[in-house]
Amino acid sequence: MGDGALSQSEIDALLQGTDSFLDVNSSSPSQGALSDIDLNAFRDVLIPLIDIQSSTLKNFTNREIQILNPKVELVSKEALATLLPMPILEISLPFEDELVGFNAYFYKSSDAIQLGSLMMGQESKELTDMLISAVAEATSQIIGSAITYFSNTYKIHISTGSPAQFEVNSFSNLTLPSDESVVLVTYILKIDKSTTNLYQILSPSIVQVLSSLKQGTKPQVKAASSSGSVEPRAFDMGESRTRTAKSYQPAAFSKLEPVLSEEESRNINLLLDVEMEVTVELGKTQKTIKDILSMGEGTIITLNRLAGETLDVLVNGKPIAKGEAIVIEEYFGVRITEILSKEARISTLK
């Protein structure tokens, strides 16, 4: 202004600051730009979910695994390059239907090796295709639990697109959404006694919808599709290993609670008398053929479960609960101390 006074828009711009970490274009702001209130609301969405996802990983590995303290940031792609460690494993599974956009988890390669080794029951020093598939399966399960939680809590229908999994050594080889900025969620990941980070990247459109639902406002769900496209990148086959996941169909998680007809309910009631094998797993270990052949009476085998640790209760080989061993007269028994959620039990019995 000619008199040297600041206009209201200039005052607002100064109050907002120029924090490069929050890349909301102030010169031409997008209509649905995320605010700090939106990011905080989305963090509140994640808080109850991380306990469910921690339990999911715990069931896969039979180890103490925790996902904690989600830190939610809106970051530019330039800033993102300095935040993600390399090499890294990307597990991508986009959201579709009423919640549309990019969704991917990222594990530091050394963490993926540790997690995959726990799942496979054997140690490895490199990230093999088998370990990548194991981590991808675990990730599909935690994404599935998120879909179930979002669907039940906010009454929206969500499915998933085609999954992809690959290890990359360079930021330029990552698959990222076409948005100028993305939402980065950094979790603390505790595996036994080690502590590291787990990363999740989402399209701002997904966060906008969920934060609006959390705040009690009705979002423009269809508008989310404009931010759901994925930016194509050329992959250097010398630096990255790309595999399309084939062993799981995460889209099925949106159908965990179908509405049953009267006839279907009667059919389910008929199944209630079907007997299923219930077993309790005390523990397991691995031995070389030499050790097995040298076994004799009095040989002691050390299992991978600590004394006093809860036992796994399985139905037809699928884990449904945990419990502690007890003695009933002259029989062994198990007292249930922890049981999986209804949705988790249904998914493991498929």
Short description:
By secondary structure, this protein is α+β, with helices and mostly antiparallel strands. The protein has two domains: 13-255, CheC-like (Chemotaxis protein chec); 275-348, SpoA-like (Surface presentation of antigens (SPOA), Roll), CATH 2.30.330.10. Helix content is 31%, strand content 26%.
Topology, please?
Layout: H1 8-16, H2 36-61, E1 65-76, H3 77-80, E2 88-92, E3 95-97, E4 103-108, H4 109-120, H5 129-154, E5 158-160, E6 164-168, E7 176-177, E8 181-191, E9 194-202, H6 204-214, E10 230-231, E11 241-243, H7 262-271, E12 278-281, H8 289-293, E13 311-315, E14 318-328, E15 331-339, H9 342-348
Antiparallel strand pairs: 1-8, 2-4, 2-6, 3-5, 4-9, 6-11, 7-10, 8-9, 12-13, 13-14, 14-15
Helix pairs in contact: 2-5, 2-6, 4-5
Strand order of the largest sheet: 1-8-9-4-2-6-11
Amount of beta strand: 25-35%
The amount of helix comes to: 25-40%
Write down the secondary-structure element order. Answer: HHEHEEEHHEEEEEHEEHEHEEEH
What is the level 1 CATH name of the largest domain?
Alpha Beta
Task: Look at the structure and name the CATH superfamily of the largest domain.
Answer: CheC-like
Mean pLDDT: 77
Radius of gyration: 24 Å
Strand elements, count: 15
